Amino acid sequence: MAGTDRERSEPLLQPVVEDETVDWLGNPVSCKDCPHEENRRAGLCDLGRVCVVDRRGKRIDRFFAANPLQADRYLGHPYFEVRTLAAKYASLFRLGPLIADPEPDVRAMVALRLPKLRVRGFVADPDRRVRMTVARRLDGDDLVPLLRDPDYGVRLAAARKAAPGLLVRVLHDPDADIRREAARRVDEHLLTALTADEDPTVRLIVAERMRPEHLKLLAADEDLRVRFTVVERSPVEELSRFLDDPEDVVREIARQRLDQAGGA
Q1: Element (H, E) at 210
Q2: What mean pLDDT is reported for the chain?
Q3: CA-CA distances (angstroms) from residue 41 to 31, 141, 181?
Q4: Which pLDDT tens digit goes with each residue over 89-98?
C-alpha cells in the first residue's frame, strides 16, 4: 500500500550500529526526555536495551514485555514497529482501529491476536504476509478462499492447515510444494489423481502411501525412485514385470522378494 509510514521514514533511517540509541527518525535517545521516568526508576526500562523510544524492534519488544499495560497508549504511534509490537501486548478491545492500518506488519499482528471470527475479514488483505497469518489461524471451509490464493506462500500455508478432505482442491496446484503437501495428507482414495503428476517427488509420495494393489499404476514410472518404492511394496504376484526393468537395483529387489516368497 502506498504512502505507509515505513516508506516515509525509510529515507531517514541509516544502518543501525549495535549499541546505537536513536529513535525512528534517527535522533539520539536520552532518558531525560523519556515519558516513562517511573519505569526507569523501577528498572523496567534500560537505555540501549529496553526502550520504547529506540527504533530497534528488540528493544521496543522488551519494553512492552516488561510494561504490557503501556501498550494501549502506543497503538497510534507514527512508527510502524512500535504499533506492531504494541498490538502484540495491547488489550484485544483496543485493536479494532488497527484492522485498517496502512502497514502490513501491524495488520498481521492484529490478525494473529483477534478471535477467529474477526480474522476472516483479512482473507482478502492485499499483503501476502497478512494472508499467510490468516491461513495459519483459520480452519475448515474458511480456508477455501486461501487455497485458491494467487500467492504460492498463502496457498501452501493454507494447505498445511487444511483438513485432508479439503486438499482435493489443490491436487492440481501449479506449485509442486503444494501438491506434495496434498500427496502426504489427502484421503487415500484420491491418490490415483496424482499418479501422473509431472513432478517425480509427488509421485514418490504417492507410491509410499498408495494401497499395494493400486501400485501397478506406477509400475512403469520413468523415475527410478518411484519404481524402486513400487517394487518394494507391490504384491508378490506383480513383481515379475520388474525382472526386465532397465535398472539393476529394481531388478535385484524384485528377484530378492520373489526368492523370499518362493522359499516361504
Answers
A1: none
A2: 92
A3: 11, 52, 53
A4: 999 999 999 9
Q: How many domains does the chain have?
A: 3
Helical residues (DSSP H) of the chain, grouped into ranges: 5-9, 37-41, 57-66, 80-89, 104-113, 116-119, 128-137, 144-147, 152-161, 176-185, 200-209, 224-233, 248-263
75 belongs to a structural domain: yes
**Domain carrying residue 202:** 187-264
- Dist CA 255 CA 252 (whole Å): 5
The three grid cell numbers given for residue 122, joined into one nine-digit string: 483479512
Cα separation, 216 vs 200, whole angstroms: 16
Model pTM greater than 0.70? yes
Q: CA–CA separation, 79 vs 6, rounded Å?
A: 7
CA dist 215 and 71 (Å) reads 58
